[in-house]
Amino acid sequence: MHATELTVGELLKEQGERLRLELLSGEKSLGRRITVPDLNRPGLALSGFLDRFRAERVQIFGNGEQAYCQKSDAKKLADALSAMLSVPELPCVIVTHNTPVPPALAQACKKHGVPLMRSAYDTTTLTGELSEALEARLAPATTLHGVLVDVYGLGVIIQGDSGIGKSECALELLKRGHILVADDAVQIQHRRGGYLRGSCPEPLKNHMEVRGLGVIDVKLLFGIGAILDRTRIELAIKLEAWTAGTAYDRTGLDAKKLAILDVEIPLIRIPVSPGRNLAVLIEVAALNQRLRSQGYFSAENFNQRLIERMKTKERG
Fold first, then answer.
1. Residue-level pLDDT, tens digit, the chain, 316 residues
2. Partner residues linked to 230 by β-bridges
3. Residues 182 and 68 grouped into a single domain
4. What is the CATH number for 10?
5. Which one of 35, 58, 74, 85 has the fewest CB atoms closer than 10 angstroms to its CB?
6. Which candidate in 250, 262, 313, 315 is catalytic?
7. 286 and 205, same structural domain?
């Protein structure tokens, strides 16, 4: 598992054009780190109330903050800005709407070496786009060996020992109209809201390795509709070589979980043996999981009916 960090300079380089950012001052401080994807609008802090001020966040000055700076007492404002911007963890300040920067803010940023930027976007647009960009870079992430396929709109990660048939299974799912996200290596992020999002590392994108065939281009063979950049992972399938005597769940009551980045998703172990159509089994597993997510548990309902039937016979 790893959590990435981002410097203000990297943000400006990667997102500057898309977010219409202009660096006004603080060129020497572009190495300041951004460690959280959340943003902060320092309304109360401008009045001098710094309790629970989130200095580790990128500070956004919208129309409200700019108007306050124009009309407030100059001495009180200077003191408040100095107290805010003197915190070493503060990454940068962004002024929205492409408006002139309040002189007091510009002076305070220069005094404390805080990068000051301006965006041509309005506050709502900038905060939405910037939050998404920061979360994509800063969310906890890991890479797992396996195949990620979107089956009936459900992200299914297929894992198993090398040579067990993961890619062949995914190839059959593709032929049945489902969508490939990643083969061999799956990049996973723990996104805000407690869910997992999977994607494919850039060098492997749109490709699969199938034993006996080599590397194939899924986009060229099956069309652009057969690939997907990312999907929400909601089910894990573990393919295992069948061995006599190994116990497998036959009722669906023995619910197992797989923890990835502190998020648990349902795990189904499927034994692999000649004659089993794994693609069909995974399709049914995905459909059954969709029912479970809607509150219908087939195995539990069936078990409850059996118990009620036995109770009725005992009373009779």
1. 454 679 999 999 999 999 999 999 999 999 999 999 999 999 999 999 999 899 999 999 999 999 999 999 999 999 999 999 999 999 999 999 999 999 999 999 999 999 999 999 999 999 999 999 999 899 999 999 999 999 999 999 999 998 898 999 999 999 999 999 999 999 999 998 899 999 999 889 999 998 888 999 999 999 999 999 999 999 999 999 888 767 776 666 677 899 999 999 999 999 998 878 999 999 999 999 998 888 877 767 776 777 777 777 776 5
2. 199
3. no
4. 3.40.1390.20
5. 74
6. 250
7. yes
Rounded CA gap, 297 and 179, in Å?
26
Which tokens sit at 121?
A: 């976007």
Whether 184 is catalytic is yes
Residues 293 and 175 placed together within one structural domain of the fold: yes
Residue 305 designated active-site? no
Verify that 130 and 189 share a domain, yes or no. no
Task: From the candidates 97, 110, 112, 184, give the one annotated as an active-site residue.
Answer: 184
Identify the domain containing residue 191 by its residue range. 141-302
Last-in-domain residue among 81, 109, 138: 138
286 within 8 A of 156, measured Cβ to Cβ: yes
Q: Answer whether residue 126 is part of any domain.
A: yes
Non-local CB neighbours of 10 within 8 Å, separated by 6+ positions = none
145 labelled catalytic: yes
**314 within a domain of the structure (yes/no):** no
Same domain, 30 and 134: yes
CATH at 210: 3.40.50.300
Provide the number of structural domains found in the chain.
Answer: 2
Q: Is 217 a catalytic residue?
A: no
Judge if 289 and 205 occupy the same domain.
yes
Axis crossing angle, helix 74-85 with helix 103-112, rounded to the nearest 10: 30
Q: Which of 124, 114, 115, 130 is nearest to 37 (CA)?
A: 130
Catalytic residue selected from 18, 33, 76, 145: 145
Same domain as 266, residue 183: yes
Among the listed residues 118, 137, 166, 178, the single catalytic one is: 166
Q: Give DSSP secondary structure letters for 150-173.
A: EETTEEEEEEESTTSSHHHHHHHH
